[in-house]
Amino acid sequence: MIYLVSACLVGINCRYDGANSYSATVAAFLDGRQFMPVCPEVLGGLGVPRAPCRFFGGDGQALLAGSAQILDRDGNDLSESFLVGANKALAIVCSKGITSALLNERSPSCGVREVYVGRYKVPGMGVLAALLVDKGIRVMSDEEPLI
Ligand code: SF4
């Protein structure tokens, strides 16, 4: 089995601030397992570093349904870039026969249980997580017990 993994969790400097979110817990889980690191925001053409982004009007599921947006802090609508990146990551998932993804909590792309909508942290999913769930892929948060 190959796991799709948020690239920042395995130490790749792809976060909006140019840093990573390396997790020793994730590294221990992936030890001896095959995995494919992916950053959907980089796949969507967004640079590193980049302005932080948040949802408005709903989460990733709402964005997929056309009823939400992702804006950066300057008010630029980057929804299309997020959708392009998530779909490119999905194409990788399909081409590799990946059935599980381990994603970084609260990101507007990778969040599994919580995201920021406006100024508020709310239950919801990032764009990639929502797209993967819609396609029947198991998504796991880096903050849940990994088994
Ligand atoms: S989009 Fe996902 S992989 Fe890329 S930096 Fe954000 S949380 Fe990490």
What does this structure look like?
With 147 residues, the chain is of the alpha/beta class. The chain has one domain (2-141). Helices cover 29% and strands 23% of the residues. Strands 2-1-5-8 form a four-stranded parallel beta sheet. A hairpin with a 2-residue loop joins strand 6 (114-117) and strand 7 (120-123). Helix 4 (79-96) crosses helix 5. The longest helix is centred in the middle third of the chain and has 18 residues, at 79-96. It is globular. The protein starts with a strand and ends in a 6-residue tail after the last strand. The mean pLDDT is 98. Iron/sulfur cluster (SF4) is lined by residues 6-8, 14-15, 39-41, 104, 107, 109-110.
Q: What's the arrangement of secondary structure elements?
A:
Elements lengths: L1 E5 L17 H7 L3 E5 L1 H4 L9 E4 L3 H5 L4 E4 L6 H18 L3 E4 L10 E4 L2 E4 L3 H8 L3 E4 L6
Parallel strand pairs: 1-2, 1-5, 5-8
Antiparallel strand pairs: 3-4, 6-7
The structure holds iron/sulfur cluster.
